[in-house]
Amino acid sequence: MTNFTGQDIGRYRIIEPLGQGGMATVYHAFEKCLECDVAVKFIRMEQLPPVEVEKTLKRFEREAEEVTRLTLEDCKPIIKDIVPMYRRSTTGKAEFALITFY
Q1: Cβ–Cβ < 8 Å for 15, 29
Q2: d(Cα 7, Cα 65) in Å, to the nearest integer?
Q3: Of 2, 8, 30, 65, which is most buried, counting CB atoms within 10 Å of its CB?
């Protein structure tokens, strides 16, 4: 598994891992332009068999679309479990989504 701790990915300085799930690892990061803390979710691409890559990327895209539709009012009852996502991106290093950091 790739560890992005200490790396700069675009305008984000990756600080530390926060947790991981079935397809991704979430890191605490610092957004250098806006000077704020964010969470960045990276798909663990190296663990995917080639036949699963396209399916996983589509699932990640659907997740990003669904979460960005949520408003703060939607999240209040479950704020510990769901946070708004406001950017999905691809770099030469990784597929990732930027998530509000609380």
Answers
A1: yes
A2: 27
A3: 30
